[in-house]
Amino acid sequence: MKRLGLKHFRYYLLAKNSEKDENLPQLASKKMRPTKSNDPVKNDTDMVQDYSVQEPSVSGIQIPLIPQPDKPFNDLQVGYEEEVCTTLVPTPVVVEYLPDLDYFELQSTSEMHETSTTDDLLAVAAEDSGIVQFGSLPPNDMILDATLPDVHEITVHRGFVCRDLIAFFSHDQSNNSKFEIKMLKEDGTQEIAEDNGGVMRDALSEFWDTFYLQYTEGNSYKVSVIRHDMTGTQWRAVAKVIKMGYGQEGVFPIKLAPSFMQQAIFGQCNDSEVIDSFLKFVPMIDKVVFETSLKDFSSVSEEIVDVLDQYDVKTLMNEKNIHKIVGEIAHKELIQKPMFVADSFHKVLQNTQLVGEEMALIYSKLLPSPKKVLNALIFPKDMSQDEMKLSSYVKKLVREMDQYQYLELFLRFCTGSDLMTK
């Protein structure tokens, strides 16, 4: 089945009438016990025993030769409980193997005349041995592997990738695990590119750039915000993009706060990490005040009051409860406010093969740095003088990219993704 790449397949058996060809071996006289077509054959001996003709074997499957009684019967589903002298079937029989049933379904070839020809009958009976032999298989490039996933093409428009992907996955109910992108330019013509991974990574990079801008809030780390035009269906579509992008190309939205993603994937977050995520979520000026207040509350006691008013804090703060209050604010901003989005994500991502420890590794590995990019650069061993000079310029350029945004642009230009996916 794996070699043919089909759900089920048919063999065409052709044998000659023994009255016209005496060289063909005769089958022994045996009783046939009545059987029904809806019951699988439980034992080979219940149907045919001790034939003088060797039964053929195809890929480990024993196919018994079908006896033909002297007294004709119209229905192959019913046998006769009497002594009959059987011979080989004079007409071809279609043997269809059904993987889900463990038995062979027999059909008359008269039903196949509309789609089959004489050339389709590949099996012949060997006159000397009586073994059924089959014709050769198609060329290797024509044999499909049934285990390979179906590839589904997604058409998106440059500049509107986020909208198109959300619309596609909002209606896609298939279980495809492999997708390819067909990118259209602004004038509607297709970009000249074959998606071997690079087009998909480029589309995912544009998707997340737009998503961060229009569907989230925050500084270094972001969380999703509720919008009137985003229902549960659309948020689940975003989760499908996360699942597809990470499973297929290793792209993960590392700008979404880790605490929020833990809640979305596992249904709970690590409380010890909420404050760390929150400090990267708030504006830089608020981050400085919060960090200072946690270390020395008295030094920023006046500034912290103004900052906490922006988060509707109702409790009087002091040196003893400041850590507890900041943790509560962080939980409200990162978990409680986007809970509807997290629940929608969870319905899709709850079976994602991730654990808490791997979550931190994902963020760490995908975040680019000059050192990581330099280690990823590969140059030919044998280079000319000009090539060596050019490679040194490239390395110098990467070393001077201290800001994260420049590394993103460089990586996207080289790989299609602004993350260290490869």
UniProtKB/TrEMBL annotation:
SUPFAM superfamilies given in the database record: Hect, E3 ligase catalytic domain (SSF56204)
Single GO MF descriptor: ubiquitin-protein transferase activity
Listed InterPro entries: Hect_E3_ubiquitin_ligase
Ranges where the record places region Disordered: 24-44
Protein name according to UniProt: HECT domain-containing protein
Species this chain originates from: Mizuhopecten yessoensis (Japanese scallop)
